[in-house]
Each structure stands twice: as C-alpha cells, then as structure tokens.
Amino acid sequence: MRNRPRDHVKAYADPRRLAPVVVIGDPGALARACRTTGAPLTVQVIESVDRAAYEPGVIDVVAACDLPDELPVGAVDARAGAAAFACVRLGVELALGGEVRALTTAPVNKEALRLAGVPYPGHTEMLADLSDTSDYAMMMADDELRVVLVTVHQSLRTALDAITTERELDVIRLTHRTLRRGGITAPRIAVAALNPHAGENGLFGREDLDVIEPAVRAAVAEGIGASGPWPADTVFMRARNGEFDAVVAQYHDQGLIPVKYLGLEHGVNITVGLPFVRTSVDHGTAFDIAGLGTADHAALLTALRHADALASPPVDRPRANSRTT
C-alpha cells in the first residue's frame, strides 16, 4: 500500500514474519522504501498471486498503481488517496476470489481519500461495501484485550441514535462467531453499558435497560455466552484480567482508548463479518516521520500474525489475557 511502504519492507525483511505475504501496491514506492531503510530486499513484480515465489530476500508485488517518483512524501495528495483505494479494491477482489487467505491493510489517510473522491470515511466501510457486506463491525485486539464496536466513525451525538437493540444483537453475534473462528470454543462476551454505572437502574438514562439489556437477553437465549450491560469504567479491566474473552463497546472512544492505552505496537484492527479475514494496524499514517525510515513496524507484524491465525483452521487458541507474543 502507498501509505506506509517503509513499514512494509521492514516487516517483510523481519525474520519474525512467518506468514507468506504478497504485497499489493506500487513497485516503485516499495523499491524506494528498500533503499531508504537499507532493507536487503529485491522487488519482484508478479502478474498474479499464484506466481509468487516467496523466496528469501524478494518482495512479491502485485502492482495496483504506478505513482510518479516526485509525489511528495508525508503530504496529503489526491493521487496517493486514489492509489490506496486501488490497492484495497484489488485486495478485496483477490480475497473474494479465494486467491489469498487474508487481507492485511496499512493505515490510510482519510483526507487523501476524500480528495480523490473516494466516498468512504475509512477502511471498515470501504471493505464492507466492496464485498457487499451489510452485517459487519470493527474489532480492536491485542494479546490482552479484544473490543468490538457497536458504532464506529460518527459523531457521539449520532452514535447514540445508532445504538439499537437490533444492532447490539448483531454485534454480539458477530463477536461470538469471530471468537469461535479464532478457536475459542465457548466465548465469554461482556457488553459495556452506555451510561455511567450502567444507568443506575434508569437514574442516569434508560438506554441500558431499554436498548442494550434486551439484546443481551436475546443473545443468551440463542446460546451465546453474553452478559451485561456492565459499567464501562471497570469492564475492560475485568476482561484484561481474564473474566471475559471480548467486550462489546458502544462507541468509538469507549472501546479504543483501553486498547490503545496498552500500546499501539500491539493493537490490531479486525473487521468482523466480512466474507474473508481482514486485519490492520492500530495506528495512523504518521506523516510527520514519513520518508525517514524510522517507523516501528511491530504493529504490522502483529496484524500479519493475527491474520494468519484467523485464516488458519480453528484450534483451541489461548484466551486474550494469556499475554502470548
């Protein structure tokens, strides 16, 4: 992807990367990134994924764009936004066609997408539309905590109206299926309350009683191990301590602050509900250090590891608080 080619080459060269990887992107940008970082890699353009050799020291690249060498680094540009969208679109096509087991994406600059006329606020909505998926959600995860969001990229005011019993139940179901796919036989899902102290039985608002609690009861009736709504100020700590396998959070910052506090280098963004596995890093494009070759690629390695695990046949995997690396 055009956004962070230096992360790509550093992760590709890292011996901790075990999964076979084909890069979708701009071969020229990747070659320049190899020179900048000093990565001992050669860029090899392939026509299709089945032509990948996966040889040591070689990056197999399916070209999705061809950007000019003079494109400014670390600056918002419509051409880069269009290239990023082209890469994602091709990745979705390959995933839907069964040519790749999973899709791992780099961060994308939302302003560049907008300048390019791409009508999506972020990856999640883009991937859902391109794969014709209507039932989806964002999961943020690391080795200690998994969080799934009921609402994502919208204002807090509009998010409140978007939290419905139906949507709540859909997200609980998606969380259950994703954890099962990842090898957890009987997932324990905690649902975070919207209001302080879970509303104090209606004293601080009735949303938890009238909207969220009915969804939890319906999920339990379907055999899902869901509970709540639990006060949000303690439920993430309880999950991290091993009481729950995942937390369903009601809005963007409620769920992402706990995960990101544990470290951006370990966080992974997983889109649940898609017809293929998709993971991404839990950070932005970092234009302030673009072109320097100093970016930490640990998050990309983590995203690749999670993609490989989720796309593999299910086994009984460790729970979130096992602190495996």
Distance between the termini: 25 Å
Secondary structure: number of strands? 11
Q: Structural class, from helix and strand content?
A: alpha/beta
Query: Portion of residues in helices?
Result: 25-40%
Percent of residues in beta strands: 15-25%
Quaternary state reads single chain
Sum up the overall morphology in one term.
elongated
The rounded Rg comes to 20 Å
- Main sheet attributes: strand count, strand direction, barrel closure: 8 strands, mixed
Please state how the strands of the largest beta sheet are arranged side by side: 4-11-10-5-6-9-7-8
Summarize the structure in words.
The chain is of the alpha/beta class and 325 residues long. Helices cover 38% and strands 15% of the residues. It has 11 helices and 11 strands. The strands form 2 sheets. Strands 4-11-10-5-6-9-7-8 form an 8-stranded mixed sheet, with helices on both faces. The chain has a 3-stranded parallel sheet with strand order 1-3-2. Helix 7 packs across helix 8. The longest helix has 19 residues, at 78-96. It is elongated. It starts with a helix and ends in a 14-residue tail after the last helix. 47% of the residues are buried. Mean pLDDT is 87; it is low at 315-325.
Essential attributes:
single chain, 325 residues, alpha/beta, eight-stranded mixed sheet, 11 strands, elongated
Topology:
Blueprint: H1 5-13, E1 23-25, H2 27-37, E2 42-45, E3 58-63, H3 78-96, E4 102-105, H4 110-115, H5 123-130, E5 137-141, E6 146-149, H6 156-162, H7 165-181, E7 189-192, H8 207-221, E8 226-230, H9 232-240, E9 246-249, H10 252-261, E10 268-272, E11 277-281, H11 298-311
Parallel strand pairs: 1-3, 2-3, 4-11, 6-9, 7-8, 7-9
Antiparallel strand pairs: 5-6, 5-10, 10-11
Helix pairs in contact: 1-2, 3-5, 7-8
